[in-house]
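Q: What would this chain look like folded?
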Amino acid sequence: MFYYLIVALQAFCIYHAYKNSKPYYWYFVVLFIPVIGSLIYIITQVYNQNNAEKIQEEITTVLNPTKRIKDLEKKLEFVDTYTNRIELADAYFSNKDIPNAIISYKKTLEDTVQDDLYARQNLMLCYFQLKDYNAVIEQAEFIKDKSEFKGSKQQFCYGLALNELGKPDEAEAQLKQIDRPYSNYAERLELAKFYVENNRTSEGKELLNEISTESLRLTKPNRKLYGATIVEVERMLSAL
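A: My prediction, written as structure tokens:
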């Protein structure tokens, strides 16, 4: 029983660190100093008297995600508000229940008083997972001129969707905006693949070499984080 409590505590800390974009060294503290590391993380990064209830809720989400969904469904049945609908949609999305997430996000769009940016951003990600590229582009048309769209994951999905629908020039215009040094490694790898697939091998190889060179300067935690991407970059370089 004590072992499972330790694992649950570690799972919560990792989940909280990921959700709140904490520095990567916390992953190592929590994983390699199981009890003490988790307690240090909670005391320094999470706990205060005002959010104890939130901590309990997040632990429950990690251990039993369907319970949170059921609770939010009941909450929405009692009071159908924009906030409750968004929370439920987010819970569906986190639990990979994409069809229900789409239904809930689209429902929020009926409330014309609210800003539609957040719902449409997430609808783009939902449709992309379903490979419904026309729907991705349809949602992008509503938000692509907003500042939050530039350099975002949604813009990346938009570019890939355009490419899938046979619009490589438009796709490149979007994908190139994700090409930023020392960041967006997975996205830049996809851009390199885009170049290679469109018979622009020299440009693809140049981008792959840039990523490879940058990877040598990454910290150990970041090298581990982007390890799979770096391996794929090196594989492609050796094949070109």
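The chain has a mean pLDDT of 85.
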